[in-house]
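Hello,

Our lab assistant flagged a job as stuck in the queue for most of the afternoon. It eventually completed. Since we weren't sure the result was trustworthy after the delay, we are filing this so someone can double-check. Below is the sequence as submitted and the structure that was eventually returned. Let us know if re-running is recommended.
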Amino acid sequence: MSKICDHKSVGMLVWKGDKLLLIERAKFPFGFAVPAGHVDDDPTFEAAAKRELKEEVGLDSVDLELMLDIRKENPCRREGGTWHQYKLYKVHTTGDVSGSAVETKQTRWFSIEEIRALAERTDRYLNKNIPEDEWQRDPGLEPVMYDLFKDTGII
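-- returned structure --
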């Protein structure tokens, strides 16, 4: 039985110098993204951000700075998941990065130039120039991340 979508999601921007931590999702929606997830039973968006950061990349949050609060139409794998209220946070962290074996294919620090290259690939995918099977093997940014990165000025 699949979970019901709560339509509330968080994403965490973790910078190391001029590089941003991205994960490659192991499950739909495919693509590279910041650590992110649903709020679920957490009492606040901030609590969910701390939990998701620990679950997906093994880091502890020192502080959270809200960068974006926006509704986005986008699919998720949960029942009824057609849109989300996103809160995107800039996060200072402690600990060492260790990607979740269940949630991630890889974790890596990306330069802005590398993120732009992923964005170009996403643009080609969204314009139907990359077939789905190829996208799943070699994705760009997760489509909603592509939009969120544009909204925040990252790309």
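-- support follow-up --
The delay was a queue issue, not a problem with the job. The result is valid. The longest helix spans residues 112-126. The first strand starts at residue 8 and ends at 13.
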